[in-house]
From TrEMBL:
<dbReference type="Pfam" id="PF21307">
    <property type="entry name" value="Glyco_hydro_95_C"/>
</dbReference>
<dbReference type="InterPro" id="IPR016518">
    <property type="entry name" value="Alpha-L-fucosidase"/>
</dbReference>
<feature type="domain" description="Glycosyl hydrolase family 95 N-terminal">
    <location>
        <begin position="3"/>
        <end position="250"/>
    </location>
</feature>
<feature type="domain" description="Glycosyl hydrolase family 95 catalytic">
    <location>
        <begin position="279"/>
        <end position="693"/>
    </location>
</feature>
<dbReference type="GO" id="GO:0004560">
    <property type="term" value="F:alpha-L-fucosidase activity"/>
</dbReference>
<dbReference type="GO" id="GO:0005975">
    <property type="term" value="P:carbohydrate metabolic process"/>
</dbReference>
<dbReference type="InterPro" id="IPR027414">
    <property type="entry name" value="GH95_N_dom"/>
</dbReference>
<dbReference type="InterPro" id="IPR008928">
    <property type="entry name" value="6-hairpin_glycosidase_sf"/>
</dbReference>
<dbReference type="InterPro" id="IPR054363">
    <property type="entry name" value="GH95_cat"/>
</dbReference>
<dbReference type="Pfam" id="PF14498">
    <property type="entry name" value="Glyco_hyd_65N_2"/>
</dbReference>
<dbReference type="InterPro" id="IPR013780">
    <property type="entry name" value="Glyco_hydro_b"/>
</dbReference>
<dbReference type="InterPro" id="IPR049053">
    <property type="entry name" value="AFCA-like_C"/>
</dbReference>
<dbReference type="Pfam" id="PF22124">
    <property type="entry name" value="Glyco_hydro_95_cat"/>
</dbReference>
<protein>
    <submittedName>
        <fullName>Alpha-L-fucosidase 2</fullName>
    </submittedName>
</protein>
<feature type="domain" description="Alpha fucosidase A-like C-terminal">
    <location>
        <begin position="695"/>
        <end position="788"/>
    </location>
</feature>
Length: 791
């Protein structure tokens, strides 16, 4: 459970991330000069705005008519009239810089990120003096804490300061070093050519956020001075630095400048409380708090061939996924990163989680809703981190409010919609700078329809009916109202979305490639999933009978999915040729994973066709796309193939690799490489590995549905299954040895197993497989644990 290295990071993607959901640090581990890149998750460019476009309503019927006439490229051009502004960007806070007076020549260097305790440690020796550093991001105390120590009394001489690439001033206030900054009012996305990409407001009347960072130190000996250049510690044996930060962000609807929070007050309040506590007590409460979440799941996939001291980087290059220990590490790293970037009350994890060091980050480091944001949260429920799902669920509630106006203004529909991207200001309008963007990505009104899958899943795993009634269902219902109004008759009685895209992919027509057409498979599948979830929810809640009937009948009329000429699941309503058969998005397979529309039992032909589609896409892609394919192959019960995709993921990508679309992997610090860095690959890997071991999207649970041959022996504990079950599984010789299923809700447990099984409770048989069917069902009592074995 450690990432370890024998040299400092030269670049950010070799650094090691810590976070408490809100504050993040990327630790380089330099000997003479240490740099820790800092983040605070509310620090974004911009200010509240909506970006709705009334002109969209005029263009919509014209686009629909062009599509009916199959004039696709013209429709593409006209769709640009329906676009809105780009989102704002997630910004770096700055750096904590330390300069040690002992020079750069050392030996026995080692830096480690222990993800079992969420503590970063560093050790090296200069002469006879051993220097150590220990750092963590405390959630209970809301500060970053860095403890420095020397093995020889008084050997520590260090200077610390703060810096930022944003507009700022530094100085000192009593015994603290302070950085006060202002965020730009606007930052252009990285992919936009711009003469003036970063725009600050008028200092007198600035609408951008303000932010503040404060640094304090405590020592037991030596001398401490604080001045305009930083904090200076001379002749100490230990020193503990505390970093606290906050911004003026006060919700997406606040009036800029007027209702801003007092960043300085917040930062100093956290700091005051933290410095008053002894280091050991801060560390203890941090570890206790973290382990409540982290310890819930354990995983063992087999013996690691890697020598214990081998660096993580070398392990990646030497073994990749052939080292089961490295796969375990990748799995838990995703869980670590989710805990570190997404805690109740924080912002949802964005494209880079909370870690970003540049002012124009790739794709604005925003929320990309046509895959990446959802993917970030795929591991949340199954990997037993339901609390960490909350920031996304909160974001969805906000978007559901803002998106009502967008639905009305842009399209004149009921319900709510949100599009391709959003940001901290909750943009629900399309992006594309009113026509500069390409409709293949800029025009995508399905964001709400996909996101609501998360509120349903949160219920499906927890069984929390109060949540379903008060929070989930209303948001799902409003998304369904939008879908009902957005669907149109295709002229033959089938209902389709129009215009629609299969995100970011295009098809070939006689006139050239085009993006928009009516009734893409992804749209139809997402609407099928939403309607199905709404139907089940209204049944559980005993509400909305007429609405439910309407959904049932409209779901029947959705354009049926089709099998194309290659035996593939058609990506569009017509059997067009792909622009790129290896395209990274596998949007048309959303009904296989994360959805449940397609299965071997209910839709056997389409399920086979979906498999053919995945086969055609191949095994090479961006990091996040490889992660999706791990889960997809698991749903096809092909564990060896899932492992092959994992081995493509566990391939070293070096910093500086330019943006690429067919060779993803991981950086030396095991963060996902699109490339560039994008965190969704990490989250998809954890979700995909879990899905290899346990599935529950069908009306039953399946143990070890996609176990690869290479994992002959192993165990997992603490995974969650829908219906309120917690599952531990041990396997041997590639077969189930025993499983323990704890029922939290007392619902019936339904298992699918190809081999006969027996279920016992306290040694007495509860159920044996008694029919030819491979499904067995047994009642459970809440709080009891059932044992499952092959019979
Ligand atoms: C979508 C993807 C890209 C990238 C970006 C953030 O546009 O197609 O590959 O992940 O989001």
């Amino acid at each position: 459970m450690k990432l370890q290295y024998d040299k400092p990071a030269h670049v950010w993607t070799e650094g090691l991330p810590i976070g408490n959901g809100r504050l993040g640090g990327m630790i380089f581990g330099g000997v003479e000069q240490e740099k820790i890149s800092l983040n605070e998750d509310t620090l974004w460019s911009g200010y509240p705005k909506n970006g709705n476009n009334p002109g969209a309503k005029d263009a919509l019927p014209k686009v629909r008519k062009l599509l009916q006439e199959e004039r696709y490229t013209e429709a593409d051009t006209l769709t640009k009239e329906m676009m809105g502004p780009y989102t704002q960007s997630y910004l770096p806070f700055g750096d904590l810089l330390l300069r040690f007076e002992h020079g750069n020549i050392c030996h026995s260097y080692k830096r480690t990120l222990d993800i079992e305790n969420a503590v970063h440690s560093l050790e090296y020796q200069i002469g006879h003096v051993i220097y150590t550093r220990e750092m963590f991001a405390s959630h209970p105390d809301q500060v970053l804490v860095l403890r420095l120590a020397a093995s020889v009394e008084g050997a520590l001489n260090v200077h610390a300061s703060l810096d930022s690439p944003l507009r700022h001033m530094t100085g000192f206030r009593e015994d603290r070093f302070v950085l006060e900054g202002t965020a730009p009012e606007h930052v252009d996305p990285s992919y936009v050519a711009s003469d003036d990409p970063i725009r600050y407001g008028d200092p007198e009347n600035n609408k951008g956020m303000t932010f503040e960072g404060q640094l304090a130190v405590k020592t037991e000996d030596g001398q401490v001075t604080v001045d305009g250049r930083g904090i200076h510690v001379l002749g100490a044996t230990t020193a503990t630095f505390y970093f606290s930060a906050a911004t003026s962000f006060n919700g997406m609807d606040a009036i800029p400048g007027v209702e801003g929070k007092d960043a300085s007050f917040i930062a100093s309040s956290f700091l005051d409380e933290a410095v008053a506590k002894p280091y050991d007590s801060l560390l203890d409460s941090h570890i206790t708090d973290y382990r409540v979440l982290f310890d819930r799941v354990k995983l063992q996939l087999g013996n690691s061939p890697a020598p214990e001291q081998m660096s993580t980087e070398q392990r990646i290059t030497t073994y990749g996924a052939e080292d089961p220990g490295l796969v375990e590490l990748l799995f838990h790293y995703g869980r670590y990163l989710l805990i570190a970037s997404s805690r109740p009350g924080t912002q949802a994890a964005n494209l880079q989680g909370i870690w970003n060091a540049v002012t124009r980050p790739p794709w604005s480091s925003n929320y990309t809703l046509n895959i990446n944001t959802e993917m970030n949260y795929w591991p949340a429920e199954i990997c037993n981190l339901a609390e960490c799902h909350e920031p996304l669920l909160d974001l969805i509630s906000h978007l559901a409010k803002k998106g009502v106006e967008t639905a009305q203004v842009n399209y004149g529909t009921r319900g709510w919609t949100t599009h391709h991207n959003t940001d901290i200001w909750g943009q629900t309008a399309p992006v594309g700078n009113y026509g500069d963007g390409d409709p293949s990505w800029a025009f995508w009104p399905m964001g709400g329809i996909w996101l609501t899958q998360h509120v349903w899943e949160h219920y499906a795993f927890s069984g929390d009916e109060t949540y379903l009634r008060n929070s989930a269902y209303p948001v799902m219902k409003e998304a369904a109202l939008f879908a009902l109004d957005w669907l149109i008759d295709d002229g033959s009685g089938n209902l389709v979305t129009s215009p629609s895209t299969s995100p970011e992919h295009k098809f070939r027509t006689a006139e050239g490639v085009a993006a928009v057409s009516p009734g893409s498979t992804m749209d139809i599948s997402l609407i099928w999933e939403l309607f199905t979830n709404c139907i089940e929810a209204s049944e559980i809640l005993g509400t909305d009978l007429d609405f439910r009937k309407e959904l049932v009948s409209i779901r029947e009329r959705l354009l049926p999915l089709q099998v194309g000429k290659y035996g593939q699941l058609q990506e569009w309503s017509k059997d067009y040729e792909d622009e790129d058969i290896y395209h990274r998005h596998t949007s048309h397979l959303v009904g296989v994973y994360p959805g449940r529309q397609l299965s071997d039992e209910e839709t056997p032909e389409l399920f086979v066709a979906a498999r053919t589609s995945l086969e055609r896409r191949g095994d090479e892609s961006t990091g996040w796309s490889l992660g999706w394919r791990v889960a997809l192959w698991s749903r096809f019960r092909e564990g060896n193939r899932s492992l092959r995709l994992l081995s493509n993921m566990l391939r070293l990508v070096r910093d500086g690799a330019s943006e690429q679309y067919n060779h993803g992997g991981v950086y030396p610090n095991l963060l996902g490489a699109h490339p560039p860095f994008q965190i969704d690959g990490n989250f998809a890997a954890s979700a995909g590995i879990a899905e290899m071991l346990l599935q529950s999207h069908r009306p039953y649970m399946e143990l070890l549905p996609a176990l690869p041959d290479a994992w002959q022996q192993g165990n997992v504990s603490g995974l969650r299954a829908r219906g309120g079950f917690e599952v531990s599984i041990r396997w041997d010789n590639g077969q189930l040895a025993e499983a323990h299923i704890t029922s939290h809700l007392g619902l019936d447990c339904v298992l699918r197993s190809e081999d006969p099984i027996v279920v016992t409770l306290d040694g007495s048989v509860v159920k044996t497989e008694d029919t030819d069917s491979n499904i067995i069902s047994f009642p459970t009592s809440a709080g009891r644990t059932y044992r499952v074995k092959l019979s």
